[in-house]
Design goal:
CATH architecture: Orthogonal Bundle
CATH superfamily: Winged helix-like DNA-binding domain superfamily/Winged helix DNA-binding domain
Order of helices and strands: HEHHEHH
CATH class: Mainly Alpha
Number of strands: 2
Shape: globular
Strand content: under 5%
Structural class: mainly alpha
Radius of gyration: 13 Å
Number of helices: 5
Number of domains: 1
Strand order of the largest sheet: 1-2
Largest sheet: 2 strands, parallel
Helix content: 25-40%
Distance between the termini: 6 Å
Length: about 110
DNA sequence: GGGCTGACAGCCT
DNA sequence: GAGGCTGCCAGCC
């Protein structure tokens, strides 16, 4: 996986691996890609990246919706709810419970 | 070809 | 304990 070498490629790979009804954070993806501080870039990769990936499963560390998600935060929230994810009145999810980490032996 | 922006997170003051 | 700045890297102008 990570032998791709490309930061964006890793992000794409991990996002595609997120199971149904689970989520990951920008910081997670950035760290897994090799740059724990590159959370911003994860947003950029997501925005300019392929649309075939479950970007709605990518949320910020507060468990909130992404800022520039197509259709707005409400659209992302709806997609997550459709997957069985429960959100509170603030459209925030239980990040500590729904967060997902990829298997270490995935490679 | 170079520089700026951008869907966030972590550390410092 | 809270607020503000820096860091990261791909894509677009």
């Amino acid at each position: 996986m990570n032998r791709e070498g490309s930061f964006a490629e890793k992000i794409h790979t991990y996002v595609a691996m997120i199971p149904f009804g689970r989520v990951m954070t920008y910081g997670q993806l950035a760290a897994l890609a090799g740059s724990p501080r590159a959370a911003r870039q994860v947003g950029g990769v997501a925005h300019y990246g392929p649309e075939g990936l479950p970007w709605q499963r990518v949320v910020n560390k507060h468990g909130g919706m992404a800022a520039g998600f197509p259709g707005g935060p409400s659209a992302q929230a709806e997609m997550l709810v459709a997957e069985g994810v429960t959100l509170n009145a603030q459209q925030c999810l239980d990040i500590e419970r729904l967060i997902w980490w990829p298997p270490e032996d995935s490679d």
